[in-house]
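Quick one:
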Amino acid sequence: MGKSTKSKAKAGRLDPYEVGPLGLYQLVDEKGAEVAEIPELPEGLAVRLLEAMLFQRALDQRMLNLQRQGRIGFYGTAKGQEGAVLGSGAAFEEQDWLFPALREGAIALWRGMKLEHYIAQCFGNSADPTLGRQMPCHYSDGPTRYVSLSSPIGTQISHAAGAARAVQVKGETDRIVGGWLGDGATSSNDFHAGMNFSAVWNSPIVYVCQNNQWAISVPAAAQTASETFAVKADAYGMPGLRVDGNDVLACYVATKMAADRARRGDGPTFIECLTFRLGGHSSSDDPTKYRDETIAKTWEARDPLLRHRAWLVDRGEWNDERQEDFLADAGKTISEAIATVEAAAPVATETLFTDVWAEAPTMLQDQANRLANEEMI
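Output:
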């Protein structure tokens, strides 16, 4: 890999497991300068990560616009957290099972989920493979092994823990599980149950906590008295890592090391990605009602997109023209997908009765027949 030409001195190779739960693992600082030696990355990965972050930022804004126009009912953006999302998500292999929280939809797209399916899930019409049965942003995609998030805070942690144990029982030695959660979920019963279960069974799982410092309106300082969220891993007998969540390369390297460790059979790791939610919790939220937005302005200067872009520009791998072309193409792709999805018909009413039973009981068949007869009147 090429060397940065920026003047800030670099440290040597850092091991995130040595930095541990009380430090902050970082490879690239807020100005895009390398502060530690960056391990060799897969060819083209660094550029792909920037493209994916730019695409998600553009997609989030378009989807939020749709909600404001009344064309979809709800949306939650990942603005400011794209580095933690994609850096961690890119570290898993295609055979792995992933259990997300609210803001990891970009990972599904990274793994190959069709953009039309992503958008259709928010419209809830017949273009949605899940037939509108989940509220918007609850993406799931079987081919990419991306499991729908759970609205009740933290319940996906238990699902991920169970899946990782199932991988062990089935002897699938090359498959692991990724489980995401927010800082607020660390106060849930499922967090304790999942972490304890995974550690006791030494399961092949990586937990990624996106500490965006706000559980809707509850600040991290009111969430825990622990010095960090990562240090909670000590109580369960697993390693805890604390990573700069706005450094996409640090998130990737730390998560990849944890994934490799789990794949070797060395057990679970809990990663805290320190980041910040620049927008509201969702399209239904106004963060100015409960937080000082001058703090958000401070974190805007730490934007993961700007940081990673500066690093790539310094290496001669990115420039203004390339970004303009990419964003123009992305905008066209998103617009075409929205137009296709919005033109789809509503979900057929008979789907109310499908995918529930292998063989529908008499009562359900009677209800389906009565609905069909009413529609014919």
